Amino acid sequence: NHYSEALTLIHTLSAELSAVKQALNLTDTDFSQFHADERSYLKSLTEQPLSDRLQIRYVQVLDDLAEQWLEWNKAREAANQALTGIPVGDIHQINAALSQARIRVDTAYTKLQHAEAFTAHIKSQLIIKERWTVRGDEYNKFKDKVSPQKYHVALDELERLIVMQLFETHFQEQVSK
Question: 118 pLDDT exceeds 90?
Answer without folding.
Answer: yes
